Amino acid sequence: MVMASASMALAQNQTIVYEWLNHPCSTNINCNEGCSACALPENSTSLFFGTNSIWVGVPICPLPVSVGNNALYSNAWPTFPSPNHYGLLSALAQIPMQVDSIIIRHRREVAGPQRLKVGYTKSASEPLIEVADVQVGVEFEHTVITNLGCLDMPPGASFGTMQLRVQAYQGNGGNWHLDAIRIVGSPCSAISTGIGHPGERTREEGTHTYFDVLGRPIKGEPAPGVYIGPRRVVQLF
């Protein structure tokens, strides 16, 4: 019975959610003007879990955007992406894990950075590669990145590692607001298309066939406000 229960748990999607909420934990983010927020994510399982976020070259401050909901406000982002200005987070997997989707909820102030570049690597031994370079609006939007493959687990290693880097740029001194990052994974042996948001639709590049989040073909055009770029980046407005 224990083995059966474990198998059922492994077949389910597993999530890592960064929300920077205002509650105490072992690693907190503090600033003079704002709140104190937990830097650690909420992990749905101990088999796939995230570490605290790291910020280099930019001041960050947790501030409320609604009741019980903080966002990380950050500024001093450069005109062009810089290796000295970024946010970085890591996740570890103790089983062969596929990263189905990464969902970033964010916005900018009027004078804030107009673009966001996202780097990703599925192995601790490989460099980060660009998986998204998107416009940032003044209202909260979701950038969804999919088809990121399975994390590498070298022979003899007890876990696989992924890293995600965010770099806002093209600003004029205003803040970039990062409300949440949600990472969805599933065991590599499982068939999964990832989890987006209700009503999200995607299309296969180079065709006119559209699919829902379960991979089922649909007829007609997708709903207005949904865009998919050449790197399978989805903008939800």
Description:
- It is a single chain.
- The protein has 1 helix and 20 strands.
- The longest helix has 9 residues.
- Strands 1, 4, 7, 8, 10, 13, 15, 19 and 20 form a 9-stranded antiparallel β-sheet that branches.
- With 237 residues, it is mainly β.
- The N terminus and C terminus are likely disordered.
Helical content class: under 10%
Unreliable segments (pLDDT under 50, ≥5 consecutive)? Answer: 1-10, 191-216, 224-237
Radius of gyration: 18 Å
Would you count the extended β strands for me? 20
Task: Name the helix and strand elements from N-terminus to C-terminus, one letter apiece.
Answer: HEEEEEEEEEEEEEEEEEEEE
- Beta-strand percentage range: over 45%
> Total number of helical segments?
1
